Amino acid sequence: MILYFSLLTIALCLALLIFNSHINRSIYFLIVYLTTLSLYGILHHLIFFSNSEFKLAIINIHLIPVYYLTGPMLFFYIRSTLKDSYKITFKDYIHFLPFAIGLVAILPYIPMDFSYKIKVAQLFIDNPESIKSIKSNILYPNYINVIFRPILLLAYSSGCIYLIWKYSIKKRNTSPLYQKRWIIKWLTTISFTSVLIGLSYLLMTYSFFTTDNIKRDAFNQLPISIFSGIIYTSIPVAIIFFPRILYGIPRADHKHIINAKERNKMIEIRDEDPLGETAVKILEYLDKDKPYLNTKFTIQHIASYLDIPKHHVYYCLNNIIKEGFIDMRNRYRIEHAKNLLLSDKFSQMTIEGIGLESGYSSKSHFFAVFKEKTGVSPIEYIEEQRSSN
């Protein structure tokens, strides 16, 4: 079960990387956190459930430093989401110290002959207790890794809960309430789940080190082992129930709230939403500069022009303006095309030229969208308008 959920989590990470990392870069921290957690689950499966010494030899010792990134990546993800900033400062590099130490410790092991690594893996499979005594690195016994990993995850997860509590206690009024409510629930869920994972793995480690002559089957049947497996599988499931986690918590400067109230003639802006001013600026940019007439116009143009993160733009469109980017872009383009079709300029242009000047790169695409939005073709639209006049 652990193996399948580990692979499912890695697949989810790949989907996040492909489809959502360009929206909110804080997602990178979440991806690394979930990936390292998944790799640890795969390692556990190979040692206690599988008989493949080859697969175990590939990841057994080589990935020890990577496991130390689990806690820091969770911390960076929680912090960056709450602060709406994914930047890492120079002081943050101290969080990578366990990773660096672990990497230095296994350097002599990496170039060793693979046949030796197969023997070590087979030893772990035949007798898991050998983990307690084998020396696989130059700085400390291997069992230190087994003990320190869950402690580190437990410490970071507890620190993340403190960050969430500290954020909530201040009752930030620079964050949209609608978005904040969902994100806080998600961050709390993943942090508490990580605490339970760290705690259960620590208890499982304690049982492993305090039990003599322990066998794989007996160890897998321990209540704490079963509980650890259940908790471990809950994170990929939780992602499915929190689809709003991808955009983070957009935050704006408090000074913009007053301006938004003064200029809300363009759109209906909720008083409690501090990104109302940003939504107004988006619409002003579209009305004044008409960037949608560019055939390559994307949401990145809005983010770059206003110098704001992409997930701010997504939030404004979906939750304040209440119109998706594609629909909004087509609406503006079709309105522009309708004006051109009824203007004197139409006599000097072809229908294809009208579509091109309205932002469409092909005649077929222009015709399809125009009919979808108006119910008629461009030619039929002209005839209807002329007959009505």
Short description:
The protein has about 400 residues and is mainly α. The protein is built from 20 helices and no strands.
Amino-to-carboxy terminus distance = 70 Å
Helical segment tally?
A: 20
SSE class: mainly alpha
Mean pLDDT: 83
What does the overall shape look like?
A: elongated
Radius of gyration: 28 Å
User: Which runs of at least 5 residues are low in confidence (pLDDT < 50)?
Assistant: 253-271
Q: What does this 3D model show about the protein?
A:
The protein is 67% helix and 0% strand. By secondary structure, the protein is mostly helical. It folds into two domains: 246 residues; 134 residues, Arc Repressor Mutant, subunit A, CATH 1.10.10. Helix 3 crosses helix 7, helix 9 packs antiparallel against helix 11 and helix 14 packs across helix 16. The protein is elongated.
